[in-house]
Each structure stands twice: as C-alpha cells, then as structure tokens.
Amino acid sequence: MASFYSISSFVRTNYPEYWGEQEYPVGSCVAIHKVSEQWGIFSNFAPAPLTVEGVAFRSSEELFQVLKFSDPGIVRRILDGVTLGDKPCHNCKMAAKSYERQCRRPDWGNMVIDAMKYCLMQKHAQCEPFRQALADSIGRTIVEDQTSFSKRHADAWGVKRQGDTFVGPNLLGRLLMELRDNGTLSYRLPDDALSAIRGCLDA
User: How far apart are CA 72 and CA 56, in angstroms?
Assistant: First the structure.
C-alpha cells in the first residue's frame, strides 16, 4: 500500500502521461544529487529566492510544500519553521509533513504535478543561474539520482542507478527537460491555490 505521503498513486490516476519507469544511459545524463554539486541548482532544495504574492520563499521546494494547504495560518507556521507540535523545524518539507495528515488540501492529488510545474515556472522566471544551467544541459538527459536513498526503488521524482543505466519515473527530470526544451510548462491550478499564500501575510 502506498504511503500517505507518496505521490505515485496520484500520478498514476491523474497524470498518466507521466506514469511509468524510464531508462537512461548514465553517460548521457546530468544528475541531480546534492545541492552543493554540479547541477545542484536543479534541486528544488537549492537556494533560489522567490517572491510569490508578496511572500518570500527560500527555494522552490518551500513554495511547493505550502501549496499543499489552504489555511493561511498553517502556511505562516511552515514558513516560520514551526511544526504541528509547536517544535522548531528548519526543514520546510518536514515542517509541512507534520500538518499533512490533518490539514492537506483534499484535492492535492488532482493538482500535485501542476503545482510543481508552477513552482518550476516561478524559479525559471526569477532565478538566472537556474535558467543558465538549463541552457548548459541542452542535449543531455536530466535525472534526479536517488541511488544513495535507503529505499529500494526511486520514488516518483527520481531514478536509481543499475549498472550503466538510471532507472525510475524521473518526474522531476522530465519536467525540467520539458521546461528546457519548450521554454514553458503548461499547468492549471485551482482558483484558490494561492489564497493561503496571500493570506499568510496577515496570519
């Protein structure tokens, strides 16, 4: 049974065009692994200051995490690094995770990939090093290398190395290449998708 926090079932049901494992020769790839390494700017955790609806975000991952919620107060707490149990947490993903079971938008599964596309488009518009890295990667395959992860298989976002091949869904890499090759990403978000971000300024 898939984890509550896994997006795999959402992708399979709502985004079948992105479903399924892919295979890529290692030699033709640029791999996202650590933020500090070459191509680290492709990671959603890479420092890339963004401003959306007047609210400052430190990375596209931080923006992605708060899009899971429709309560401005929760968004404010995540940005302030406070968990559901009032514990300080400087990892935006972990802070958001503490609220998910009780407070995640009920339609998150219907919008998750569109939300990531929105975040990548914001990063593309506001982060010149990100745009330059995309240009530098032309002609090569982008993959998120999760080989060092303890879980047996790559999650929906990445790949794992098997000999001379990367294998996995590689959703992040595919979205990055789609953005690079087309210059844009098409997405559709609910009308209230940004309401909590706007409202968190007053929360």
Answer: 14
